[in-house]
Amino acid sequence: MRKGMCVVLGLTLAFTVSAQAQVWDELADGGGDAGDVLPLQQTPGPPDVPLVAITGTIDSSTDVDCYSIFIPAPTAFFATTVGTPGTLSDTQLFLFDKRLDPTGAGPLGIIMNDDHPGGGTLRSTLTGGVGVSGPEDFGSVPAPGSYMLCVTGFNRDPVSPGGTIWAPGSVGGSFAWESEPIGPYAGPGAPGPHIGWTGSTGTGTYFIELGGVATKPEPGTLSLLALGGLALLRRRRS
């Protein structure tokens, strides 16, 4: 097996088999309400352990809770509120790339979901693979790295600097989801970094079940992951 691939797979395995799997609670572990924009999100810990769930409360009509997560293997990623405990019956999930857009204005939208594509529920599911979650789950997780996962109730939606938002059922959407496969906002680096939220929502508790997710790694682990990815890239080019 190639050295670079060994590094990446080894780190992924370390995240997924650790005995310290973490369920993070917004209040008990985070100490209060999670913020709704970068850099006010909560960062679950301790570092370098699998993150299997996040729990919390949408406690007002304008509340949005955001969390910093690490995705070591994009195709293994999922986040869902379907079939989980909680009183918030109509959820929305959003995933943002924490790297700043070219203007330095804010993170870019990667995936969102309002109602689970399988139907039968108003709860939400995100997955990391391409085209596996239906028309309200645009694109895919582009690469291993740090992302911002946000949860709210319907109909509290993200805002870009131009004031546009993603709207369920709209043609092509109106918020710029970076990985959207078609339309004017398609492709990496699409315009419209996230700066806030609009609309109002119901209130209640939520439980987000996670897969293929870890807490933020130590700097040394991140460096190893970057080296492994670089080794893979070099081999592909040679």
Describe the structure.
The protein is of the alpha+beta class. It has a single domain (20-215), classed as Jelly Rolls (Sandwich). Helix content is 14%, strand content 27%. The chain has two helices and eleven strands; from the N terminus they run αβββββββββββα. Strands 1-2-11-4-7 form a five-stranded mixed sheet, with no helix packed on it. Strands 3-8-5-6 form a four-stranded antiparallel sheet, with no helix packed on it. Strands 9-10 form a two-stranded antiparallel ribbon. A hairpin with a 6-residue loop joins strand 5 (91-100) and strand 6. Helix 1 (3-17) runs antiparallel to helix 2 (219-237). The longest helix is centred in the last third of the chain and has 19 residues, at 219-237. It starts with a helix and ends with a helix. The relative contact order is 0.24. The model is unreliable at 1-19, 132-137, 167-174, 178-190 and 227-238 (pLDDT under 50).
Structure characteristics:
238 residues; alpha+beta; 4-stranded antiparallel beta sheet; globular; disordered C terminus
List the helices and strands in order: HEEEEEEEEEEEH
Radius of gyration: 17 Å
The order of strands across the largest sheet is: 1-2-11-4-7
Given this structure, which CATH class is correct?
Mainly Beta
Mass-distribution shape: globular
Number of domains: 1
CATH architecture: Sandwich
Report how far apart the termini are.
16 Å
Output mean pLDDT. Answer: 76
CATH level 3 topology: Jelly Rolls
Number-wise, the strands total: 11
Oligomer: single chain
Number of H- or I-type helical stretches: 2
The structure class reads alpha+beta
Q: Helix amount, in percent?
A: 10-25%
Strand content: 25-35%
Q: Major sheet: size, sense and barrel closure?
A: 5 strands, mixed
Poorly predicted tracts of residues: 1-19, 132-137, 167-174, 178-190, 227-238
